[in-house]
Write a structure and sequence with these properties.
The protein is built from no helices and 8 strands. The chain has 125 residues and is an all-beta fold. The chain has one domain. It has a 6-stranded antiparallel β-sheet with strand order 1-2-3-6-7-8, with no helix packed on it. The chain has a two-stranded antiparallel ribbon with strand order 4-5. A hairpin with a 7-residue loop joins strand 4 and strand 5. The two termini are 27 Å apart.
Length: 125
């Protein structure tokens, strides 16, 4: 972090497997739980108080059901965000999630959003 620039990130390694005694899936990865996930965000606060951010989210491949039969592919999503304070309590913001309109699944054939944009006002007290 150097003044106006901030870089944050996190990583999770999740080696969760079925440990149910006698289970047919014993020792296999549990459903819908990627082993590796990571997030990284670069943020910049401009001299005019505008804050912009670029974020990347990664999820390793996983499986839709126990037994590890139906694989769900890994994916990387990019997001951009901006916010500007109007006063001490009110802020205008906007963001675009899944900027590259990546097709991905967190569950087999379950609809996930493509590119999506949001905006609004945020009031804090």
């Amino acid at each position: 972090m150097t003044g106006a620039f901030t870089l944050t990130g996190n990583y999770t390694y999740d080696a969760i497997v079925d440990r149910s005694p006698g289970a047919l899936d014993y020792g296999l990865q549990l459903a819908r739980r990627p082993r590796n996930t990571a997030n990284l965000t670069a943020s910049y606060l401009w001299p005019n108080r505008l804050r912009t951010e670029l974020a990347v989210r990664y999820a390793d491949r996983s499986f839709d059901q126990n037994g590890n039969v139906i694989p769900l592919q890994s994916y990387t999503l990019w997001d951009i965000r901006a916010s500007y304070p109007l006063n001490g309590h009110l802020e205008v913001y906007g963001r675009v999630e899944n900027l590259t309109d990546k097709h991905y699944e967190t569950a087999y054939q379950y609809g996930t959003l493509g590119r999506a944009a949001y905006g609004g006002l945020r009031y804090s007290f």
